[in-house]
Structures are given as C-alpha cells and as structure tokens.
Write a structure and sequence with these properties.
Blueprint (H helix, E strand, L loop, with lengths): L1 H7 L11 E8 L4 E2 L12 E6 L1 E3 L4 E3 L2 E20 L5 E7 L2 E4 L4 E2 L14 E6 L5 E6 L6 E3 L4 E3 L8 E2 L6 E7 L2 E6 L4 E4 L7 E2 L1 E4 L10 E8 L8 E7 L3 E7 L8 E8 L9 E4 L2 E6 L2 E4 H4 L16 H11 L6 E5 L4 E9 L3 E8 L5 E4 L6 E5 L2 E5 L1 E10 L7 E7 L10 E12 L4 E8 L35 E4 L2 E7 L2 E9 L4 E12 L5
Parallel strand pairs: 2-3, 6-9, 14-18
Antiparallel strand pairs: 1-40, 3-34, 4-5, 5-40, 6-7, 6-33, 7-8, 10-11, 11-12, 12-13, 15-16, 16-17, 17-19, 20-21, 21-22, 22-23, 24-25, 25-26, 27-28, 28-29, 29-30, 31-32, 32-33, 34-39, 35-37, 35-38, 35-40, 36-39
Length: 526
C-alpha cells in the first residue's frame, strides 16, 4: 500500500519547484592583493584589487593619509637622511635640487644648510666611532661627500678634516658599515674601498671584485647581512653588481687571509637602482627586476626560486612595473615598524607620479597605495616621512591627504557560494567599523566580468556624536568604532560573484570587516 501511495504522489517539476533564499557572510579579503594567480584560481580571502586599503590580520582598513611637514623646498625632494646619535639627538635632512635642508621642524623650511650641489640623489649612513663621535655620511658619486657631525657640515676631500685619500672622494656613490669599518662603492667601477676600523676618514684601501664578476658591469651597492639579527662574527659583507651577481665575504679584516674569506658568488637577477638593498630584521632584502628577495632564501640554490620572493603574490604586477619603470629614479624599500608595513616605492613617472606596493609584515598580504606621491621615504623618530615636490610630508598620521578625503577601492576573489548553480543576488551588506559616516558604495561583478557595477561615491564629513544631542541608534559616539550594517540592493544573476567596494572618507577611521549576501539559488547550471 505504501508503494501505491508513493506512486500516486505528484512529481515536483522545475516549474513548481520553489527557489531557496540564502544569507551568507564572507570575511573581508585579509590575504590582500593577488596579482599572481588567474582570477578563476584565486582563493577566499584574496583580492583582485586592493588600492589604498591596507590588509591587517583582522580586517581591511582604509589607509591613513599624509600631512605636509616641511614646505618651501622648491625642487623635488629626492633624499631623506635621518641623523641619530646615541645621546638621542635626531635630525632630519632633505636633499632637494642642488641643496640640503634641515627639515626636522614642521613648517616653512629655512635657508639651505648645504648649497651648490650637482643633484639631490644621495645615499647616506650613520656611523658612531668608539670615541662617541656620530656622523651622518652622505655620497652621490658626483659631489664631494658631505658629513654632518652634529655641529657643522664638512665637505670631504683629500685634504679636509677628516679626509679620504687613496681615491677621489667625489667618485664614492654609496657606503656601508661592516664590522665597525666603513666601506665605499666607487661609481662606475667594480671597486670597493675600505677605511681602517672605527674611522670615517684616512687612507682608503682598494678592494676589487673584477676577477669575480664574470658578467662585468659595475658595483651597485654593498651592505651587511646578519644572519642572527645580531652583530657578531657571522656578519657577511654583500656586494651587488649591475649584472645581478651577488658576491659575499665573511670576516673582520679584509687585509688578513686568516680573518677574511669569500663565501660565494651567485647570479640572481639585475638590481633596480642604487637603493636596492634594505636591512629587514636579521635579513637583507634585494630589489631585483624579478622581485624583492630575502637574501637568506635567494642564495639557497644556484638558480633563484621566484616563489621565495616577498613579492611572489604580486609577481605579475612587480614584473610589469620593473619592465616599464626600472630605469626611473625612486625605487626604494622602506620598513615602517610602527604600522607593520614594508613599502616598495614604484616611480611610474619620475618626479611626478609614484605608487607603492605595500606589504603587511605580519601576514605577507599586499596592497597598493596610489596617494603617496613621493620620491623617497624614511622613518624618523618612529614615524614615516616622504619627500615629494617641494615638500616633506608625514605619512600614516592622519585620516586624510592634507585635508582631502581618501578613496579606497577593493574587489574580492570570485566565489561560487558553495554551489555551481545559477544564483539571483538580491542584496549586499558590507560590515564596516568606523567612528564616523563614510560614503560606501558596493556592487557585484558576475562570472568573471569586470563591469565595476558601483555607483559614484559622494562624501560629507561626519564627526563624533555629542551626548544629549545625537539620536539613540543613529548617532555615532566620538570614542571607539561603531559597526555600520546597511543593505545595498543589487540585481545580478550568475554562477559566481566578486564584491567590489568603494570607501570614501576623510577625518575618520574606516575598517572593512565582512560582507553579507542575500541571494536565491536556481535549479541548476544554465
């Protein structure tokens, strides 16, 4: 009887089968910008686009902005040179045009402290000797080096005090400190030079790597590589040539075979610019045409493994930038510890348009900044500074770019929402934390399209609410972040979707936490 009853029951068909509504939530894409994988292979948490939004371990925040610090430098600021002494003296110098300025104090800059220079593209190093004398030593390969000793600027020649002899000082283009010994790079040669230990002047001794650099070229940069993040006898001296050869030595005294030796020669890829080396924790980072590599991983084998690059997740963008802009001045790495941030400056148009590829050093997640238009960066007194067109600006210090609202744009990876069936998306709800009312627009791209279905963003400044004035449940209290949950109507049909969001805000903090989706599931693949 049960079988007969079952046979009499009417069959459900596509025509009368009900649609199923779903509400699903996805976290914000904290894995950051993925400019490596095809969009069809990206994973949840990836972002196809992440401009002016910084991925943290917990959320994605609208980046902080810039405020003018020192103004009136007239020309492009191309070098920022912090001076730090053991006694706590901190001074920030900026090179612009043919001069150097003291830009420690905020406001209109005073008269130049050094004039009559050939250019503003200086490499600098701080050195304190055993007598406690601290020097800021600056080199550009054209002018005589300039030293600041906390009281005066000294033009270094073969007869100055201190003096450098043995080579023409004006041919020194950069320097490094290794085992309390100053090393120099002589411009357009394969020659390094070194001074006696604990000295900033005196007779320099030539150290040529011409016999080791089989690919020719010239010496670009040198620096110390400390494997244990300390200052011990395991520190290595690293030399990088223009043809991408890395030559590594270990020891303390290059004049003694007993305490000095060659560790190896590797070819890993051509460096970009003079500022291609950056100390980072216990490692040394190299900016190469094929990515940014930690030296500890780049030298593990005879052929470089591109997957060990810090820029691996954005390697397509990195390769495109290097191919198009590597000859421009301004490539530079800057580690900003206070924000857990590593910035790679990309000079799109030299002196007029720059971008930064920015990594969260805690997670390895990347994004791109388009509003920091700077030629150079430096951390001074724990804060990030940028040299631009006639101005030194403080970065990451305010919610706005000199009072102008910041626009952040991001797009998530495409997602099938656990079903390879057609879906009709009805509503989208970004979950935002803020201490104000940002202007937010969002939409969906469907089935790998790039339609950018987002309305124009408008913005009105909203400050924190006052007790007794703001309406309960509507006003935002001035202290702390409040959660905004506003549904946005959408009307899209497809198998998969990616969320594109625009956030415009000034004077307030904005963090993207997640997105909720309301959609109906169809009957099958169509």
């Amino acid at each position: 009887m049960r079988q007969i009853a079952a046979l009499r029951r009417p069959l459900r068909t596509k025509a009368n089968r009900g649609r199923i509504s779903n509400i699903t939530s996805h976290p914000a894409p904290t894995k950051g910008w993925n400019a490596r994988d095809p969009i069809a292979e990206m994973q949840p948490g990836d972002a196809i686009v992440m401009d002016d939004m910084f991925p943290t371990p917990a959320d994605v925040m609208l980046r902080k902005g810039i405020v003018a610090h020192a103004t009136g430098l007239v020309s492009q600021v191309e070098s920022l040179m912090p001076y730090n002494t053991p006694a706590g003296t901190q001074t920030l110098f900026a090179a612009a045009g043919t001069s150097i300025f003291n830009t420690t104090a905020a406001g209109a800059v005073g008269a130049a402290v050094v004039t009559g220079l050939s250019n503003a593209r200086w490499q600098d190093v701080n050195f304190t000797n055993s007598s406690g004398n601290s020097y800021l030593c600056c080199f550009n390969g054209v002018d005589s080096p300039r030293y600041w000793d906390n009281s005066a600027w000294i033009t270094i020649t073969g007869a100055s005090t201190p003096a450098i002899t043995g080579l023409t000082p004006s041919t020194i283009v950069s320097a490094a400190i290794h085992q309390r010994r100053m090393w120099f790079v002589q411009k357009d040669t394969l020659d390094a030079w070194y001074l006696a230990a604990d000295s900033v002047g005196g007779a320099a001794t030539k150290f040529s790597i011409a016999g080791l650099a089989k690919r020719g070229g010239y010496l670009v940069a040198i620096d110390t590589w400390t494997l244990d993040a300390g200052a011990g006898t395991d520190d290595f001296l690293v030399m990088v040539t223009s043809e991408g050869e890395v030559i590594v030595y270990a020891g303390t005294d290059p004049s003694s075979a007993a305490t000095w030796g060659l560790k190896g020669v590797w070819h890993i890829g051509e460096p970009i610019g003079r500022r291609c080396l950056k100390k980072f924790g216990g490692d040394l980072l190299l900016v190469l045409v094929n990515g940014v590599f930690p030296l500890s991983k780049a030298l593990l084998s005879a052929s470089i493994d591109r997957s060990v690059a810090l820029t691996d997740r954005i390697n397509q963008a990195m390769n495109t930038a290097a191919l198009s802009h590597s000859s421009n001045f301004g490539w530079e790495l800057c580690h900003f510890p206070a924000a857990n941030m590593l910035l790679l400056n990309i000079p799109v148009n030299e002196g007029s348009l720059q971008q930064q590829y920015v990594m969260n050093v805690l997670t390895g997640a990347w994004c791109r900044f388009t509003g920091y238009n700077g030629n150079c960066f430096a951390v001074f007194n724990g804060e990030l500074y940028m040299g631009g067109d006639g101005t030194v600006s403080k970065c990451w210090s305010t919610f706005g770019d000199n009072g102008i609202a910041i626009l952040g744009i991001a797009e998530t990876a495409f997602d099938y929402f656990k079903s390879r069936t057609k879906k009709s998306f009805k509503m989208l709800r970004p979950i935002i934390s803020s201490n104000g009312s940002p202007a937010i627009s969002a939409g969906l791209d469907i089935d790998y399209s790039d339609a950018d279905r987002v309305s124009t963003v408008t913005f009105n400044t909203v400050s924190g609410a006052l007790w007794g004035i703001a309406l309960w449940g509507i006003g935002l209290w001035g202290s702390g972040l409040q959660t905004l949950r506003n549904w946005i109507g959408v009307s899209e049909i497809g198998l998969c979707a990616a969320t594109r969001i625009h956030i415009l805000a000034g004077g307030i903090e904005v963090r993207w936490q997640a997105c909720d989706y309301l959609y109906e599931v169809g009957d099958g693949i169509v």
